[in-house]
Every structure is written in structure tokens, then in C-alpha cells.
Amino acid sequence: MSKWNKPIFHIIALIVFALLGNMFNLSLLLGVNFIFGSIFTLLLLRIYGLKWALVASIIVNAYTLLLWNHPYAFIVFVLETLFVGLFSRGKKIVLNVTLYWVILGMPLIFVFYHYALHMNVTASLLISLKDAVNGIWNALIASLIVTYLPLIKWPAFQKRKISSSFHEVLFNHFVTLIFLSLLLVTVMIGREQYRNIKEEIKSETEADSSLIRNDIMDWGKAHVAAVNLLSMAAAENRLEKLDYLQRQAASVQTLYPDFINLYIANRNGTTKVFNPLRNNKGESTIGLNFADRPYFEYMREYHQPVVSDVFQGRGGITVPTVIIGNPIMINGEFQGAAVGALDLNYITTELKNLVKNSLMYVTIVDQNNKVIASTRDDLAVMNEYDWTKSGGIHVLDDRLYHWYPDTIKNPMSRWGESSYFKIMTIPHMGDWRIIAETPIAPYRDRLYSFYINIFSILLVCGLLSILISNMISRIIVRPIKQLTYTTTDLPEKIAENQLVNWKGSFIEEINTLISNSKEMALRIQSMFAEIQLLAYYDSLTGLPNRVYFNQRLQAYLEEASDLGHTAAVLFIDIDRFKMVNDMFGHANGDSLLKEAARRIQGCIGQDAILSRMGGDEFVALLPNRTREQSEQIVQTVLQAFKIPMSISDHEVYTTPSIGISLFPSDGKSDLELIKNADQAMYAVKETGRNGYSFYEGKLNTSLSNKMSLETMLYKALDNDEFELFYQPRMDLKTDQIIGLEALIRWRHPVQGMISPADFIPIAEETGLIRPIGEWVMRTACAQNKAWQNEGYEPVCVSVNLSVRQFKDENLVRIISDILNETRLDPQYLELEITENISMNIEDQVLSILQEIRKLGVKISIDDFGTGYSSLNYLKKYPIDFLKIDQSFVRNIQGQSNDEPIVKAIIYIAHSIGLKVIAEGVETKEQLDLLRELRCDEVQGYFISKPLQSEGVKDFLFAAQ
């Protein structure tokens, strides 16, 4: 066999074994099976990689479509292969499979079974636990095969140099011994419980059926005997002593009140005796003729007693009735008949008394399958009932059957909706039958609960065994592994000044090896330290020099580009240092530089890198800092230099001039950032020193425009140049306008309408957003109250809150004062915050939001999905609404991924009790799709563009 054919042969062999593992499964009960195909797909993953394992998983798990008749197990099992392949590349199979089932597999199975297959919580939880146990067990078997079977001779093993670690060997031993024992006990106990429940159902069904049959049979025999006695009395009197026979009929009916009537008729069918003597219309019953009745014709022809078909509504009788007749024979000749009409309501009443098992349904039908009585509410008397309809039947015992519904294809659901049927015939009553039905469902839930308990115990014990086994094996293997890790690339570690952690062991030989390696490393480290100090550090301050700083800065920028991080570079020059040098000498100047370095280092933080570039110039890298954070650090540095320095018994005041450049906006290379920070520093020098400046570059023109806009903004509020527009919000269930969003507009007397995108950022930066935001809230509340006073239907008005407003310690008091001033009910005010408001100040935000909610004001998250998204704060914060940003709505019908994102947001929000508002709805198609996705509310140009206060009234009037 060629080299190319061997791997293909092995792959095909493993796929075949995997298929057999799924086909020859271990059934716990119908539709609940242990399958073993993933053992071999995990082997494929370990030997041949993710590509082949994924192909095999798709082929092998396709069998579950036939086994369980749904695609959801297929999806989850294929995802298992993908998850383990991506996150472990075939290593640590057991741990990664366990991780998959705990964090992803079990939740997915539960969601699929509960919401897609509409199974109850108990059944869905059972399958989740069963599949998790099954998956972990398969991973253990696969790991054992890799460790102990002679797969090492396979070409793929030799090519990929696959081997098992000592830790894996010990771990597999510990876990398998514990898990295998628990699994065997679980399967045996579970199957025994299943058998017990089946026997319980059979015995209870048969016992109750027999009790009911005997009772009804005795009741029927007694009434048949009563009619027989009446016919014998008529025969003895040769139908002559009619008064006597009338009294006999009345006596029989008194003894057997379930008879509706009794009569004796001659051979022509004419009644001679009838009890009662008059019908419900007051007419005499003597002389009526029943010769045309089938039961009478039968007795006249065959001279045999008869029990008629059950009927209803004949001759003024409206209850289910059966006729019992006995021929009157005189000298072997048919001379007439004694007949009783028997009320069958007794049977209905008796069923309710006799059926002790509340889980069982009992129905009695006549020979034509017409219902006589039933404990089922859905079966009407006299309707036809065929219990075999729409189902398959499996014979269990004598007249004991197991019925399965044909309409349900999933075997687990089909078994759960099946029933046991016991069929019994009642003699002497015209071949009536008792149909006793015991649904599996109540017992199913009990069995499921039992399995859930034992699977939960098994899973918890399994996880504990994995954890304990992992700990034990690590304790034994750790010293060897630690030494291997420590000595790997040891010279490079020493050269890079990495901390080498030499850990001891309780094994003597390993301890000796560790000591020898440690001594050798110390000697190498001493030599490296001397060389490194000379090459990379400033001899005066001990700080990194220019060369080392540039290397570190360049390395950080490469990493930051990949991760999307930011940074700030500070260029710091000590003002009038030359004067200090000239006055106090170079030695004192050196002391000042050391003290300056110490103060700067203390301000910029441990993760920052400070370097002396030469003379009195320092450069610092502040990793992953925003503009605001960098500004705060610089202000701390300036504050530190306000304390005088002691030089030669003199107190000397000196100040720094600091230039700041930001990555990536001000440059993407180390040299560019340092150069721009240097330019910014000189800008500070030109404006008087002792300060800081951010690099502006080519933005001078825009800065001028910005300053002009800032000047106008200060006057705008005083000059009443702002106004509010309101955009209606519609409820998708009622199509009613239920809210308005207040939007600020700036109408400048000269420049006209100025976009919020231009002036809001400036207001944020300058702090003007606080008085502007307060004006917006007060104006919106007053306007809303005015609309209500005019008689319009109350709606909620929403107002945006900025980050600056949130940092205002008086925010809650301001909101309360505005509500009191305007007398607006708090329920008609909604405050919109952005996702980013919670960054770094979650506890503060939570406290503020809780205080706002105490006022009765609603809270919504605006532009959801565009900022710092976290499901954690959605659960933690007291939020009422999520507003989906219009960027997702805009392309919701296109080829983008926006529709599933919107669908996911709506699902998550609803699952934690939040309502969802979609912004930017511009077309009917978008509206219809959002309605289909169960979005709660929408706003956008399709509903209405933002309106001035007068234009809103039309919408409010329409809402009334």
C-alpha cells in the first residue's frame, strides 16, 4: 500500500468505527441513548487534525438525524469537534470536552430541546445532562486509546510527533477509574427504575380494569336477571293477571331504579303492562306497540334474551340507554316479551368512584365503538372512539398494548406521548368493552426526574474527579514540568531579564537537578546583567536610555496595532535646568535630575516606561491610555514639581514643560511619536513653560474653528438659541405613539442651524454639556406636562444623558428638582445613557441608576451594540429599554450580518426582561422585519422625522 493510501485507509477506518459507535448505541429508554461515535472523531482530531475530524463528525453525526429525527444533536456534536479542535488542537481532550459541555453544549441542547422541539424543562434538562456525561465519557475513552493503544506506529503519529505527557497518563488513570464506576452504577440503576415503572403501569392498569369490569358485569347481570324474572312471572300468568304483573313491574323498578321504564308486551308487540303508566306528556303507555323494534324482532325470531345497541333520545329518553329484553315463552311458543330500558348514567358515576388511579383514563364502549361512559373530558357520550387511530401498537401481554402516536417523529417525544392500553370485554352486556388508558407522560416526568438526579450526581462527581485527578497528577508531575519549562531557552530568559522561578520537589533526584541548574543560571545571569546595564541603562538615573526606550516603544506599538490599543508619549523637559547647573554645579544638577526622575516615575505608574534621553530631557511611554487619562497623569506630574527640591541646603523650585503625542492619531512609529511630542513640548515653552500641550499638527485650522464655536456656545444658552425637536416612538403591537425622544437643535442667528455632531463634542469637552443637558431635561419635562394639561394622552419623553452629567454628584437632586418644578409624573420621563458610560466606573453608575429608579424615572441604553457592550451590566443595572443603534437597522435586509445581530439583541433583552427599541427605521420593509423579530418599539423617518413641539400634537391627537 502506498504512502498516500495508508492515511486515507486509517481515516476511513476511524469513520466506519465512529458510525458503528453511533449505530450500536446504549439505550436507556426510548429516544435517550448513549452514542459513541465521538470517540473516533476525537481520535481523528488528535491524529489528523481539525479538517479531517470535522469531515468525519459531519458524516458520523448525520446518523443522529435518523436516530432522533431532528438536526439539533447533529449541530451540537459537530460544534464539539470544532470547539475542541480550535481551542486545544487535539490536546487535553478530556478537559476541553468538559469545558465545551459545561459552557456551550449543555445550554445549546437545553435551548434546542425546550424551544425548538417544545419539550418540557425536565426532558430538556435530562438530555442536556445525558449528552454532557456521554461526551465526557467518550473523551476519556479517546484519551485512553491515544495513550495506550499502538497508534504510535501510525504514520500520522510519527509525522506529527504525537505523544502523551506523563500528566495525561496519570490524569486518565484517575478519572477513568472514578467515572467508569459511577457510569456503570448509573446505567444499571436507571434501567432498573425504567423496568419498575413499566411494571407499575401494567399492574395498576390491569388491576383497575378488572375492578371496573367486575363491578359493571355484576350490575348488568342483576338487571338482566330482573327482566328475566319479570318475563317468567308473565309466562306463569299467561299474560292474564295484568294488575299483578303491573305491580311486579313497579316492584322491579323500585328495586332497580336505574331502569327508566319496564313493560310487558304481547306477541304483537303491544304493551299490556308498562311502568310508569304515563309518559312525560301525561299520555298512557298501555297499548303502545314496539313490534318494529330490532330487539323485539330478534326475540320473536330467535326466542333468545337480547341486549340492544346503546342509543340516546328515543321515545322521550335523552340519556344513554340500553334495552334488556327477555322473551315470554308459553308451551314453547313465543307469546311476548318483558323489556327494560336501562339508564347508563350509573356507569359514568361508578367510573369516577372506581378509578383510583388519577393518571389513568377509562372508557367504556359498546359493540359499535360508541362511548357509553368515559373519564376523559374530550370524549362525548355516544361518539365513536377508536383508540388505535393515528398510532402504532406494540403487544405487551394478553389484551395489554403499548400505543405510540404516528404524528410525532422524535422517538423521545413519541415515547413521552405514548400510552398503555388494557382492553377487557364485559359479558352479558352485548360485548361492551373497557378501554383503560394509562399515559406515559406522568410516569415519564418521574422517570426523567430520577435520571436527572443520577445524571446530576454523576456529572458533579465526574467534574470533581476531573478536578481532583488534575490536581493530583499536577502535584506529581509539576516539578518535572516546571524544571523543563524553566530550563527551556534559559539563556534568552536571562538576557531578557525574565524572572526564573526555581521550584523545589519532594523527589530527591529532581531536587538535585534543580539545584545544579539554578547555580549555572545564576552565573550566566551575573554576566548578562553587567553587559545589559552598560548597553541599555542611563548610568546617572538608572532609567532606560534612548536605545532601550526606542526598542521598547517600537515593540509596544507593534503589539498595540494588532490589539487596537492606544498609548501616549510624553516628552518632558526640566525648565531652567541650565541655570541650576551654572549656579550650583554639575554634581547638584545631577542630584536634581535624579530627584526629577524619581518624581516623574512616581506619577506615571508602574506599567509606564520612563527614559532619560540626555541632558534634562525625559521621555515616557504611557501604555493603553486615553487622552483624558494621559492628561490626568500629566497634571499629577506638574503637581509633584510644586514641592521644592533640596540642593546644597537650598530649596530650588523647578518646573517641567511636557509635550504629549497620542498613538495612533499623532503617529504610528516610535520616531514620529517622539518627534511630535517634542514639538508639543516646545509649544509649551513658547507659551511660558510649566505646563503641557497635546500635539496638534495640521489641525490648527480646525482648532481655530473649534475655539470659535466654543465661544459662540457659551453665549447660545443665555441667548435662548437652543430648541427641542421631538421624534415619535411607536409600539409595534398596537401601532400607537407611546413616546417621544427630545433632540436638541442650535439655531444660530448668523450661521443658521448648527449640527449637534459639531457642538455636542465641544460641550462635552468644555463641561457646557451639564447646563445644556439640564436645560434639555427641564424644557422636555415642562413641554410634556403642558401637552398633558392640554388634554392629550400622556406619553413618555426620553432625554439623553452624557458621561459628564453622570459624573455630576448632584445629578439625582437635579432630576428630582426638575420633576418637582414641572410637576411631571416621573413615569413619563425616560433617561437615555450610552454603553460607554459604564466603563471603569460600574459601581458608581449602578449607584446613580438605582437612585434615579427610586425617583420612578425609566432608564434606557442608547446606541446599543456600538460601544462597550457587556451582558453583565445589562443584568446588573436597573434598565428598562435597549435601543438598537440605527447602523444595525439600516442594513438589516441586506447581505450583512445585521439581521442575526438584531435578532440576538432582541432575544437577549427579552430573556432578561428588557424591552427593545429600534432606531433609524426608514422603510416599511424594515418595520415589517422588526415586527417579525418581535421588536417592541421603533422610531425613525418612516414613522416620523423629528418635529417641533406644535407638530407633535397631531401624533398625540391620533394616539387618543
Structure description:
Helix content is 54%, strand content 18%. The protein has 960 residues and is α+β, with helices and mostly antiparallel strands. α2 packs antiparallel against α3, α9 (166-236) runs antiparallel to α10 and α19 runs antiparallel to α20. It is elongated. The model is unreliable at 156-162 and 699-704 (pLDDT under 50).
Low-pLDDT residue spans = 156-162, 699-704
Distance between the termini: 85 Å
* Binned strand content: 15-25%
Main beta-sheet strand count, sense and barrel state = 8 strands, mixed, barrel
What spatial form do the alpha-carbon principal axes imply?
elongated
Helix content: 40-55%
Which structural class is indicated by helix and strand composition? alpha+beta
Reading side by side through the largest sheet, how are the strands ordered?
21-22-24-25-26-27-28-29
Radius of gyration: 45 Å
Indicate the topology.
Layout: H1 5-23, E1 26-29, E2 32-34, H2 37-48, H3 50-61, H4 63-68, H5 72-88, H6 93-116, H7 121-148, H8 155-160, H9 166-236, H10 242-255, E3 259-266, E4 271-275, H11 294-302, E5 306-307, E6 321-330, E7 333-343, H12 345-354, E8 361-365, E9 371-374, E10 391-397, E11 400-405, H13 411-416, E12 419-426, E13 432-439, H14 441-487, H15 490-495, H16 508-536, H17 546-563, E14 567-574, H18 577-584, H19 586-604, E15 609-614, E16 617-623, H20 627-640, E17 645-647, E18 650-652, E19 656-663, H21 670-686, E20 691-694, H22 700-716, E21 722-731, E22 737-748, E23 752-754, H23 756-766, H24 769-789, E24 796-800, H25 803-806, H26 811-822, E25 829-834, H27 842-855, E26 858-864, H28 871-876, E27 881-884, H29 886-890, H30 898-911, E28 915-918, H31 924-932, E29 937-938, H32 949-959
Parallel strand pairs: 19-20, 22-24, 24-25, 25-26, 26-27, 27-28, 28-29
Antiparallel strand pairs: 1-2, 3-4, 3-7, 5-6, 6-7, 8-9, 8-13, 10-11, 11-12, 12-13, 14-16, 14-19, 15-16, 17-18, 21-22, 21-29, 22-23
